[in-house]
Design a protein that fits this description.
- With 327 residues, this protein is mainly α.
- Helix content is 56%, strand content 0%.
- The protein has 14 helices and no strands.
- The two termini are 26 Å apart.
Length: 327
């Protein structure tokens, strides 16, 4: 109920009625761009085109969903790490609404750092944030005041967090990360280097405000300055930096937005762009050339680079058969 299969869209599956117009419009714009501007051999066939449009629609839906969360009632239980209803992203929104934007920034960091495990959900973020049920939380005030104490706590409790028989782990984009408290690539260093990046007593809000002011209120420039500055945050590579900053923009915690898709250092989005513009995901065309081409395509599609980057990544995994990807 509430869904329809569009003519010619069987390969993509069901399209929500509210998305039918957007899907047809994106398809027409891509065909027109291919004819008039730059050839798109990767979607020369209807099958590839329909699947790519399906991924664009799916990516738009994901970004819009997060934006709509800000308009919904959210239970305060979402903020309690001792409650199985804890949700780092929803908790960030609740704190933002309550005026504690510093904690909202921190929860977005936890949301990206740990991710949501396919089976364990938010367990890592919930149990670390909630000190495994002990009094207090590892909130922004506690960690930023004494990151060394957090490292020591993590060292004492790492085995409990990783205990067998209970689903848990990092999310899909973070599956190679570690809970190690002291290594240069572990959670301990990630937390402490993040604190150094914010540099208390400077606040997140001041960091963002100063960056936006220096960028003359250009959201794309400010995003890029912050993206490059986050090289200082351990374990935060290309994807984590992009996801963290894009989420700040989506939640209106920062007036920033990516002005290009940051293909350098990426895997899936780069392969997707290569496939789109050449038909060969393994061709040797460089990311800067592809970013310039996507810079011409994005204003035509009017979807934003967060959506375009996500859609390219997912489309290249299965360019002829639509698959919904999560995490």
């Amino acid at each position: 109920m509430g869904f329809a299969v569009l003519a010619g869209w069987g390969r993509v599956g069901v399209i929500r009625p509210k998305n039918e117009h957007a899907a047809r419009q994106l398809r027409a714009r891509l065909r027109d761009f291919d004819r008039r501007r730059i050839s798109l051999p990767g979607i020369a066939g209807d099958q590839e085109l329909d699947v790519f449009v399906g991924q664009l629609v799916e990516s738009i839906r994901r970004v819009d969903y997060v934006a709509r969360l800000r308009e919904r009632d959210i239970s305060v239980r979402r903020t309690d790490p001792r409650d199985t209803m804890f949700d780092a992203l929803r908790a960030a929104i609740v704190h933002q609404r309550g005026g504690d934007v510093e904690e909202a920034f921190w929860l977005v960091f936890l949301f990206v750092h740990f991710g949501k495990h396919r089976n364990g959900g938010w367990r890592y973020a919930r149990e670390v944030y909630g000190r495994l049920g002990a009094p207090g939380t590892w909130n922004w005030s506690a960690v930023s005041t004494d990151p060394g104490a957090f490292r020591d706590w993590l060292a004492e409790n790492q085995s409990r967090l990783k205990r067998k028989g209970v689903p848990g782990g990092f999310g899909n984009h973070r599956k190679y990360e570690s809970l190690d408290p002291y290594s240069s690539r572990g959670t301990g260093e990630a937390f402490e280097s993040y604190v150094r990046w914010v540099a208390p007593p400077r606040t997140h809000a001041i960091l963002i405000a100063n960056t936006v002011r220096a960028a003359r209120h250009d959201g794309g420039v400010a995003f890029d300055v912050l993206y490059r500055a986050m090289e200082a945050v351990s374990t935060f590579g290309r994807t984590a930096k992009f996801d963290y900053l894009a989420m700040l923009g989506t939640l209106s915690l920062a007036p920033i937005t990516p002005a290009f898709p940051y293909l350098s250092g990426s895997t899936g989005p780069l392969k997707g762009a290569r496939r789109l513009f050449t038909g060969d995901p393994n061709c040797r065309i460089g990311p800067k050339v592809l970013e310039a081409q996507l810079g011409k395509l994005q204003p035509v599609l009017e979807v934003g680079f967060q959506v375009l980057e996500d859609a390219l990544c997912n489309w290249q995994k299965s360019p002829r058969v639509f698959r919904a990807f999560r995490g």
